[in-house]
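W.,

You were right to be curious about this one. When I first looked at the sequence I had no strong expectations either way, so I just let the prediction run and decided to look at it fresh. Below is the sequence, 161 residues in total, followed by the output.
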Amino acid sequence: MRVTPKTAEAIDAPPPHEAYANAPDLRREMHQVLALGAERDGRRVRTVTGPPLDATAAERAWLLRRAALMDRMALEGPGPVGAAAQTAEQLVLYDRRHPGLVAGPHHPDAITLDLSGRPYVRQEYAAWAAAGRPGTHQEERRMPAMGAGATPQPSPGRLAA
């Protein structure tokens, strides 16, 4: 059976439209992933209040979100297919070192038919979202998901910028 990045039957991973059904729109997610990367690298101070995050889970959440973002961008058309495979591989390597963080039914070593790792990213993103987005700031977990093309609406009592 030939497995392509758009089909994930080989490992029973959800197809992209299911895995990313509740994902923020691409623009919002890109902004959030870049902000998390800046916090991670020390280029930006964490401004969120609340309990400190587990560093291992936070790192994994960033790797997962970045890989999912690249996968979604690659699916949109002529996108970063190479970057999607590279970020998926980084998640796979991290999960091999931290098997307790794997959320889906298949361990990264079980995926052999699609070497890009993208179906694994979809499996893990869907499981991570279903588990309440562990490793993220509380404020991000409360944000409603927005489908592609949706426009953020101001909260009641707040003026739009």
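Here's what jumped out at me. The two ends are 51 Å apart (CA to CA). And, maybe more interesting for your project: Residues 19-133 form one domain.

Coffee later to discuss?

I.
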